[in-house]
Design brief:
heterodimer, A: alpha+beta, OB fold (Dihydrolipoamide Acetyltransferase, E2P), 6-stranded mixed sheet, 20 strands, B: 261 residues, mainly alpha, 0% strand, ATP binding (chain A), ABC_SmlMolc_Importer (chain A), ATP hydrolysis activity (chain A)
Amino acid sequence: MSYLQLDAVAKHYGSRTVLRDVSIDLKAGEFVSLLGPSGCGKTTLLRIVAGFDQPDSGRVVLEGRDISGLAPAKRQMGMVFQAYSLFPNMTAQENVQFGLRVRRQDAAAQQKRAREVLELVGLAEHAQKYPHQLSGGQQQRVALARALAISPALLLLDEPLSALDAKVRVQLRDEIRRIQQETGVTTLFVTHDQEEALSISDRVVVMHDGVLAQVGEPAAIYGEPANIFVARFVGAVAELPGVVADGSGGMVTVLGRQVAASRARGMAAGTRVYFLLRPETVRLGPPDAAGMLHGTVIARTFFGALTSLKVEITGGTDCVTAAMASGDAANIAIGSTVSVNWDPDSPRLLVA
Amino acid sequence: MSRPTHNLIPGLGLGVIGLYFVIPLVATGAFSLWEGGDKYGLAAYAALIHQPKLWQSLGLSVRLAIQTILVGLVVLVPAVFWLNLRVQRLRPLFDFLSVLPFVVPPIALVAGMTTLYTGPDWFVGTANYLVVPYVILALPYTYRALDVGMRALDLKTLTEASQSLGAGWMTLILRVVVPNLTTALIGAALLTIAIVMGEFTFANILLFNTFAVYIDYVGQTSATQAAALTLLSFLITWLAMLGVLFTGRGGRGQVQIGGAR
């Protein structure tokens, strides 16, 4: 039985549909990310789970109990917000104890629990500081500790990292995952950052225009996008127009050349497809007749260990990006002609 | 090293403004010490502090100020909270209502009020009745102070954070909102004190002997005592302001509008 079940949840604001019959099941202890661009409905969905918004139809079921009509205060859910949400008049410890105080736990138990969770987030020595004395990352850690202090049935994270600078964001991201695994709390994490979602989730729910575009494990979302939206939104991808040339031999005609793609096997000849290549699967080499495609290097972007080279395919304006070790990329000059190759298993084909 | 001349100009300006405020005060102070001819002393003050009516009127005004603050805040804190949290679209209406006391002359207000408000004798028959118009008079200042304070807080996030932790509305307002509005609340309270201590029209028409009415009465009978009383009322305001300054500095750091950096 699923731990949290979102059953055909729909939400409209006036004439605008924000969520269309969204159904998701979470298993106990699972870390699930809701990933999507702004306005896809992910935050609305999280707020419906938290009880801050009401669905127009559909149900939110937690451990078999329909909580759709329950007030947020009665849902026993810990939430960390995008904006800094610590109570400015309270110290870190008082913030963490707030939920326990509301539950009228005795003072000693409150303090013990506050110490535990502050230690868990690595801020025990800052317990007596006020929010304005803490950095953004520390404030979000305290907010996480505060959400965990009440031993929530569900941990809801609403883009908690988006206000932080890049380095802190990565640190805290890894820490959130560690803490989630240590505590085993079932977690729903909203983000528009695909790297965040892919790196810390058990499963990723990609949303688009109020519907689920794909639900799956991070590797599957990246490697086997179910539709062109997911392919374009998650990771970089070169998208070439193709037509299946030979369904039994796994051949596709791309920009006038027949190239190998094992996923074409079983597809009817003549089927129009998006021929998708991830940059890390593309190999560039000296131009030769055996090359699958040829092109001209038109741009170079240096990322440190890796460099990406943008290649305009001969005979059109379509481009492919190759990510390669910076040392290798240094040998390929802008303007040079190259062959573009890949392993036949690499290209993903989506029916156009 | 000589200071550049352009730094002197603001200083000079401030000096002139300072003199504009200080000279009347010094003159009032000197006059309050005048005992006729070339004799100066504390006779006016001595005479004043032995007047039981002074203490009665002062006590009454202070009591009314406290009642006005309490009633005003109990009504306005939840109202302004709700305005900022849920019904922002009503802001023009709130803004309009809040300036009404400036538009309606007190003399019209008192006439309307005496026909509108009736009730038990402990209310309409006593000075408690003055709390009603005083709350209305203080409304623009109290509303503004609270509104500015609440706008500086991220009320939506703080509300949702406390609700997700299990807090109800009362807990939210008393433990989260109000403690973060200390400066705004003190500002509102101080302005209310200033208004109530100086309000004359209502008290005089409704025949209650408040501090302002007593100053007026003394002014008609003894000019030097009136000057001494004026200084006394200034002193009360200054003490209140000092109180605000000290409250703002000390404490546990919550007296910053906005709270978080």
